[in-house]
From TrEMBL:
It comes from Mycena alexandri. GO terms for molecular function: chromatin binding. PROSITE patterns: BROMODOMAIN_2. This is Bromodomain-containing protein. GO terms for biological process: chromatin remodeling; transcription elongation by RNA polymerase II.
Length: 75
């Protein structure tokens, strides 16, 4: 269930793009990781995962399922 939540950038929430300046999804990270030289360091790859989970926490209410999943998955 978590993977579905983070697989796509939500299109049905128009305010998401106003509140989240750098949207990212698991599918985008996967696609970028398959491009030669997109991630030149492990730190760049980890930064995108951090951004994904931070976006989830920034957009969703503390205590919500998505917020708590982001905390759990980032550990």
């Amino acid at each position: 269930l978590c993977s579905v939540t983070y697989s796509f950038i939500p299109k049905r929430y128009p305010d998401y793009y106003q509140l989240i300046p750098n949207p990212i999804s698991m599918l985008r990270i996967q696609a970028w990781s398959q491009k030669p030289m997109h991630y030149q360091t492990l730190a760049q790859y980890r930064a995108d995962w951090h951004l994904l989970f931070q976006n989830a926490r920034d957009y969703n209410m503390p205590g919500s399922r998505v917020f708590m999943d982001a905390d759990f998955l980032q550990k």
